[in-house]
Amino acid sequence: MVREHWHFTAPPFDGALEPATFYAGAPQIEALARLEWLLEQRQRFGLVVGAEGYGKSHLAAMAVRRLGGLGAEAVMLSLRGLAPGDWIALLLERLPLDPISRAEPLRLWQKLENRLRENTLMERPTALVFDDLDAAPPDAIDGILRLIGAAEPRYARTVVVAMVTPQGLPQLPDGIRQRAAVRIELAAWGTGDVQEFLAQALCRVGGVKDIFSADAVATLTRFAGGVPRVVGQLARLALAAAAGDGLSQIDAGTVERAWRELAPSADSSAQPSGVDVAQNVRDTLDEATASNPRVRVVRRLWG
Q: What is the full DSSP assignment across 183-225?
């Protein structure tokens, strides 16, 4: 019903990490610029710090594309949930090794070093982007510390970028935190970024960019705390609620009603922090279908 009501060709806020869905707000533009600086200046290591829901994984995927476009052999690996000993094998799977190199009876670490040396001899940078560093197994932490700290010439053209949450940052070894040439803090979106994100997402699926009124955008920014993931979730629910009401434009009241359905205990006069908002939304989404009939209705509207 939602797609038919708004004449969408696809859901605009499905949370996919595809390049087409990436919105480069002010924090993302700054982050990508600093990562380019790392590569251009041959710096070894950069840290991107952002709370859950701030788009670290999407930024990591786009960093691979951006650094690859600058001539680097760039790959990405999420370290969350890996068993000890798995990270190098998974990293090697992502690197474009030739069949002979893959079949060589060498230790995995030696295969990785051989690839880094080969790229260095060809004057081709290697960019290794690691998501969820604070959820990595200990051997992955040790390996990354070796990559960013070793002085051998084979590492001369290697750039390591790691994503971490503010809560996980203090848990990292001092050797990792102190070796970061740049530490990039992902900030929340302001109203302007939220407005542009909504317009880009809506136009991408054939919608009208001003479906959300100016007051609706301001209200959505306030309730979502500027957290990108929560912005998308609230926008999705507001679209469904407005479609159910037969509205042609989403106003502030519809956004607020969507927020109340998503987090009934929220207080619009005293908003929690962006991190708390994101956690509140995630927890509520997990329980909403069982505890809130109107959310069930809204979800059916989207389908």
A: EEEPPPP-HHHHHHHHHHHHHHTT--TTSB-HHHHHHHHHHHT
Give the 3-state secondary structure of residue 264.
coil
Q: Report CA-CA distances (Å) from 238 to 89, 93, 126, 140, 281.
A: 43, 41, 43, 41, 14
Q: Please, what is the angle between helix 191-204 and helix 228-244, to 10°?
A: 60
Q: What is the spatial distance between Cα 91 and Cα 172, in angstroms, rounded to a whole number?
A: 21
Write the burial class of residue 219 (CB in 10 Å: 0-12 exposed, 13-18 middle, 19+ buried).
buried
Distance CA 163, CA 167 (A): 12
Structure tokens at 131: 């998501």
Task: Please give the structure tokens belonging to residue 219.
Answer: 């209200």
Place of tokens 């329980």: 287
Are the C-beta atoms of residues 109 and 143 closer than 8 Å to each other?
yes
Q: How confident is the model at residue 112 (pLDDT cuts 50, 70, 90)?
A: very high
Assess whether pLDDT exceeds 90 at residue 108.
yes
Which are the contacts of 147, defined by CB distance < 8 A and separation ≥ 6? 44, 128, 155, 158, 160
Q: How many Å apart are CA 197 and CA 23, to the nearest integer?
A: 6
> pTM here?
0.84
Percent of the chain having pLDDT more than 90?
74
Name the H helices within the chain.
2-6, 26-40, 56-69, 87-94, 99-103, 108-121, 138-149, 174-178, 191-204, 214-224, 228-244, 252-262, 274-291, 293-302
User: What residue ranges define each of the domains in the chain, with the CATH number in brackets?
Assistant: 2-8+189-302 (no CATH), 26-185 (3.40.50.300)
